[in-house]
Amino acid sequence: MTDVTDGVLHTLFRTEQGGHEQVVLCQDRASGLKAVIALHSTALGPALGGTRFYPYASEEEAVLDALNLSRGMSYKNALAGLEHGGGKAVIIGDPELVKTEELLLAYGRMVASLGGRYVTACDVGTYVADMDVVARECRWTTGRSPENGGAGDSSVLTAFGVFQGMRASAQHVWGDPTLRGRTVGVAGVGKVGHYLVEHLVQDGAEVVITDVREESVRRITDKFPQVRVVADTDALIRAEGLDVYAPCALGGALNDETVPVLTARIVCGAANNQLAHPGVEKDLEGRGILYAPDYVVNAGGVIQVADELHGFDFDRCKAKAAKIFDTTLEIFARAKADGIPPAAAADRIAEQRMAEARRA
After folding, report:
1. Are the C-beta atoms of 62 and 25 separated by less than 8 Å?
2. 192 carries a ligand binding annotation
3. Is 323 a catalytic residue?
4. I want to staple 335 with a disulfide (CB 3.0 to 4.6 A). Which of 68, 189, 342, 358 is the partner?
5. Do 6-73+85-148 and 155-299+327-351 fold alike per CATH?
């Protein structure tokens, strides 16, 4: 993994994003490990972010994903009020085919070699059991099982935080912080989405879901028969009467094809990097759609794994995650005052906090 194209280098160093402090290309031939660890910023403290295990089409695609995701973590951690910068790791390969204990141990040694500049956790394709293995070689590992000194599944608080962001969005649009009587479409009901559905049902919302995995859909409908199912995401975003759209799968959900046909008044979901490219946030605003910035509302999980480093306390974490409601309202107020989309307002607040930390 030594080839990095000019385009990737430009993304790495471009100053309007603050640049990336360090990118490590990792390879262990014995285990087959190929990974990228990207540290965007350590201004607020050691970089913290999950490990994504995914069958990228190319090494360049993997590097670009690590760069984008790590930058997002800097902003997420800043707005969550954590003493952590942003980092992310990606492991190249299909986890169903190539994930082994030997590979995870090799990855743990790679993270440990950074001496605490990067703290890792779970992400797409990695789970609590995987972090238990990684932790055998690296003490800067969170998202471990309770049996191994960790906090367990961070999806619980991630979903709780998204729900708080959705309540704040409802307050901003309709003047009432509840989804009762509103129709909410959830795209992706896996790790986080199924917990979000529980919050919504309990709050009195009418829920519509879609997921490519039949077993994920069945788990929801078995528990909540009143939840409606549609064939795919395209059908969901076009559904009449949809009040809120919650993308909870992979990124890029808001793009040039989906935004023009989206019927919802609010977008608030758990997926990372929902905006496919710069400018989409303006398209949403132009259509009168309120966008709750993803890295703000989905910060409950990172709040949990950060707390794990200091001796996990669920009630303390839940109280911190509940503040996502206030942070989301603060962003909407800043956006209105500055005459900019909420995504831009969130960026400004996060950048201000990182700049103040660097000056300090």
Report:
1. no
2. yes
3. no
4. 342
5. yes
**DSSP one-letter code for 67:** H
50 is in an annotated binding site: no
In CATH, the architecture of 155-299+327-351 is: 3-Layer(aba) Sandwich (3.40)
CATH topology for 6-73+85-148 is Rossmann fold (3.40.50)
Q: Could you tell me the sign of the dihedral formed by the alpha carbons of 258, 227, 207, 199, in that order?
A: negative
- Tell me the two tokens of residue 117: 């500049």
Global confidence as pTM? 0.86
Q: What is the phi/psi pair of residue 224, to 5°?
A: -130, 85
Percent of the chain surpassing pLDDT 70: 95
Domain edges within the chain: 6-73+85-148, 155-299+327-351
Give the DSSP letter string of 89-137.
Answer: EEEES-HHHH--HHHHHHHHHHHHTTTTSEEEEE-TT--HHHHHHHHTT
Q: Does 193 show up as a binding residue in the annotation?
A: yes
Confidence check: pLDDT of 18 > 60: no
Residues 6+ apart with CB under 8 A from 229: 208, 209, 210, 217, 221
Residue 12 CB neighbours (<10 A): 18
pLDDT digits (tens, 9 = 90+) for 89-110: 999 999 999 999 999 999 999 9
Residue 289, C-beta contacts closer than 8 angstroms, at least 6 positions apart:
259, 262, 264, 265, 266, 267
CA distances (Å), origin 212, targets 229, 232, 233, 250, 344 = 11, 7, 9, 12, 32
**Does 318 count as an annotated binding residue?**
no
Quick count: other Cβ atoms within 10 Å of Cβ 340? 17
Cβ(180)–Cβ(191) under 8 Å? no
Given a cut of 90, whether residue 82 has pLDDT beyond it is yes
DSSP code of residue 34: E
Say whether 90 counts as a known binding-site residue: no
User: How many other C-beta atoms lie within 10 A of the C-beta of residue 257?
Assistant: 10
Annotation-wise, does 45 bind a ligand?
A: no
